[in-house]
Amino acid sequence: MPNHPADVHPARATQPAPVRDVPSRRPIKWLALGLRDLIVCPLPGILHGLAVTAFAGVLLAFAHNRFWLLAGAFSGFLLVAPIVATGLYAISRKLEGAQGSHPDAGLADVWAVWRGGQRSLVAFGLLLALAGTGWVVTSASLITLFSPQPIRTPADFINDVVAAPDGWLFEVWVALGAFLAAPIFASSVVSIPLLLDRRITVYAAVLTSWRAVATNPVISAVWALLLAGLTLLGFGTLLIGLIVIVPMLGHASWHAYRDLVDADALPPRLGVSAGSRSFR
Question: Keyword Transferase: yes or no (predicted)?
Answer without folding.
Answer: no
